[in-house]
Hints:
The chain has helices at residues 4-19, 24-50, 64-82. It is an all-alpha fold. The longest helix is centred in the middle third of the chain and has 27 residues, at 24-50.
Amino acid sequence: MITPELLARINELARKKRTQGLTESEKLEQRRLYDIYLSAIRGQVINLLDSIEFVDEQQQNPQSTKKKKVLHQTTLSLEQVYH
Length: 83
């Protein structure tokens, strides 16, 4: 799960890497934090893709509105991650 603390620490280590450089333990921590972050993003993308349903234009599907709502909610949560 992506938390504000996780993002703050990732950003802190990224700034330090650009300015001073990182110790070996900080490099390992940064790699671990990146893995957590990327895993969460991948999970969100997978959930988003799993919620997509293709419907033939000729055929009305009563569940399609439910899928659109889930898709919209997932899109909002992805936008929150990037802002």
